[in-house]
Amino acid sequence: MNIIIASDYEDMSRKAADVIAAQVKAHPNCVLGLATGSTPIGLYADLVSDCKEGSISFSGITSFNLDEYRGLEGTHDQSYRYFMNTNLFDHVDIDKNATHVPDGSNPDSDAACADYEKMIAAAGGVDLQLLGLGHNGHVGFNEPADYFPVDTHIVDLTESTIQANSRLFDSIDDVPRQAYTMGIGTIMKARQILVVANGADKAQIVHDVLFGPVVPQVPASVLQLHPNVTFIVDSEAGSKIKDKL
Fold this sequence. Notes:
Layout: E1 2-5, H1 9-26, E2 31-34, H2 41-53, E3 62-65, E4 67-69, H3 80-87, E5 99-100, H4 109-122, E6 128-131, E7 153-156, H5 159-165, E8 178-181, H6 184-188, E9 192-197, H7 203-211, E10 229-233
Helix pairs in contact: 1-2
């Protein structure tokens, strides 16, 4: 496992963007797994700048996002499809038809999840998967549990996740209570995984994920078992692991 402690959020974002840019340059037709949330916004901005400067092109890229709220159309301003369009897809030369997000508007959860797994498999799997890190160790919407979910599935969001997401909606009553998400097994099939985390409030979970036991109660701890993982954290998020490196 490669662990990098960046100086600050901007440095973390640039270093993470460089990992993705290197993948795109080396393999112009690769499959990227992408994430939403506040943490990757900076690295997406850096990738947009790289594309506009002509140093990289997304024209041959296929992408699959980790998750989507159940019940939201892609045009909803809090959907993850909308987030990706706003922060990346609308500003680079990617073919929108080659970008995929779970279909939150599909009320048939079994079909929505099975179809997503089939599309990932048909694309040859994910070459590089980007992940953020939740305060409780969740990745995607894989919350602490008694087992590691395998495939794309529907989840009931925890109260802490609903509370955390409520700042983005007019009312907490508007926050979706369910989501579709890649399973841990799907994530672990990616050939390379890149994790980003920032802020002092992530310091303990970064420590636990990297150096604690591998248990489903800390979902991201399973990444210790993957052969090709890079963690890039800012100095605050890395404050409790500096003496272990």
